[in-house]
Amino acid sequence: MSPSRTLPTLLQSEVAAHNTAKSCYVTMGARVFDVTDFIESHPGGGELVLEYGGKDITEILKNEASHTHSEAAYEVLDDSFIGFFATQKVINTAAQSTHPDQIVPLPPTEEGMEQLKENGATSKVPVYTTTGMSSEDDLSKETDLVNDYKTHKFLDLNKPLLMQVWFGGFSKDFYLEQVHRPRHYKGGESAPLFGNFLEPLSKTPWWVIPIFWLPPVAYGTYIARAGCSSLAEEVAYWFLGLFLWTLVEYILHRFLFHLDRYVEKYPLPRPC
Fold first, then answer.
1. Structural domain of residue 35, as residue ranges?
2. Taking the model in full, what pTM does it have?
3. Which residue has the higher pLDDT, 54 or 272?
4. How many domains, in total, are found in the chain?
5. Do 71 and 15 share a structural domain?
6. Number of H helices, E strands in the chain
7. Mean pLDDT of the chain
8. For 194, which DSSP code?
9. Contact status, residue 148 vs residue 157, Cβ threshold 8 Å
């Protein structure tokens, strides 16, 4: 699956049609998996996979009387994740909505989720599209780094990030979607950027800033005194400079760093 595209939302009829050895889909809740390549290698035989082709396999995977599935089975599904499944209730809600684009394609926006809740259609709906969270409590949960990478095919936070971004070939839409999805690194630490001797340069404790900048600021204030007629004038210029620099920083962050619409739409050429 290419990481540079948004996963599609499939209808029930589309999923149900993929129930043969040539193309076999299964679902778990709102997620769709293409298990065609797994049919022949299934330990219990391919016919068991085809029996659930186009259907939901949540219960059978948990059914101990039938067969208890190991973590390896779920890992196979994670690697086969191809899109989302919209139930009839979800489709009906979207059809009645004045803003169906907030509901489909899945996952829905926060406003779309509220509409689905009102219609009782949230039992098989994934989390909010922009954040990957389903509730405010999720913001305090540590991200499962392995499953996050398998699900989104973005960055492996267990590895240095710089080269992953450099060689990723991500599209603009996919990249912006992923960087706005909260991820919480283990223990509150930062994910590795370089992964070598340069790593300490990417982490700056708060107290380093005043230690580094207070001496030159104090010295600059001292020598500026010679050009001012009074202490009040120097104080006025000092706060004017602080205001102007704060304004420049705000403009940079508010506008220059958010020129998304002017960024190349397709992946940039990768370095040779």
1. 9-86
2. 0.45
3. 54
4. 3
5. yes
6. 11, 4
7. 80
8. S
9. yes
